[in-house]
Specification:
The structure is a homodimer. By secondary structure, chain A is an alpha+beta fold. Chain A has helices spanning about 30-40, 70-85, 110-120, 145-155; strands at about 5-10, 15-25, 45-50, 55-65, 85-90, 95-100, 125-130, 135-140, 165. In chain A, the strands form 2 sheets. Chain A has a 5-stranded mixed sheet, with helices on one face. In chain A, helix 3 crosses helix 4. The first copy, chain A, starts with 6 loop residues before the first strand and ends with a strand. The mean pLDDT of chain A is about 95. At the A-B interface, helix 1, strand 3, strand 4, helix 3 and strand 7 of A face helix 1, strand 3, strand 4, helix 3 and strand 7 of B. Strand 3 of chain A pairs antiparallel with strand 7 (about 125-130) of chain B, so a sheet runs across the interface. The structure holds threonine (THR) (2 copies). One threonine binds near residues 22, 25, 28 and 58 of chain B. One threonine binds near residues 22 and 24 of chain B.
Amino acid sequence: LYRPVAGVAADLSQARIVVCDVPDKPGVAASLFTALANENISVDMIIQSYARKVSNTNDIAFTVDASDLAKTMTVLDKLKNEIGASDVKVDDEIAKVSIVGAGMIDRPGIASTMFETLARLGVNIKMISTSEIKISCLVEKADAQKSLKGLHTVFNLESDIMADVKG
Amino acid sequence: LYRPVAGVAADLSQARIVVCDVPDKPGVAASLFTALANENISVDMIIQSYARKVSNTNDIAFTVDASDLAKTMTVLDKLKNEIGASDVKVDDEIAKVSIVGAGMIDRPGIASTMFETLARLGVNIKMISTSEIKISCLVEKADAQKSLKGLHTVFNLESDIMADVKG
Ligand SMILES: C[C@@H](O)[C@H](N)C(=O)O
Ligand SMILES: C[C@@H](O)[C@H](N)C(=O)O
């Protein structure tokens, strides 16, 4: 039985940070992530969508392990004026819910099936990030369990749901 | 010689679309990607950052092969009022420049090195998306060649640069 989706996972150990309204010019992303790397902070996801044309600014979102949140905020407190950010927002009530499998991206219908499943459960999708082998949605922590269960069912996966939860 | 970054690639065959100001409630992402899947449109990247709190709206960005752009716009023309989008923006002058390697995400410094390299070359990073094995930046098509060259050098990769270009 060919399964385009091999597994589902939920990671509840991360916090999401957004650095808001930075100038959309070369060097800004570099300054931000160099400062974090200098403190040895490991970043999991980086999500940056397109810049706003009128203000020529953008937001840079990323996730870190919740245990690194305090250290991350210390770095950003010092850095935000330097890079021109208007604000730094934190959300530590997130869960990263992912479906994984080989060659998913070239199969229209897999992402939409994941999103439809979450929608049917009333789960709001806060952020989305994809790669060829993984589609990840950030949702409320409180929605993680039912999201996991729903995705296991729709993709015919009988694995131990609790084994796929991190954090 | 351990190389955390195994290769660099540039994909010039894609176009980026942004569906703007959609309501941040369950079902919106599902409607959008179901409509695309129904037309058999293959989506490569999906990037959705956090929603704007005041308006409770969000933007959903994604890329398709340039050859699917016309078909995609036909779908979106019909769909945009239905899902409440204010606008649909298209950018077909993008190149997706990626570094790939095993276990990059847990190594602080790799993303920042990529971003610093692009910054030093004066290349603006339009969008960012990451996974454990790949960090992708969308840049101007005109910046693809020098981005590729710069990244090959900084990550000590002597491969044939032209072999890593798609589209
Ligand atoms: C916003 C940020 O990514 C900027 N465009 C840069 O290149 O650094
Ligand atoms: C914006 C869109 O992703 C919405 N939050 C949804 O869940 O469908």
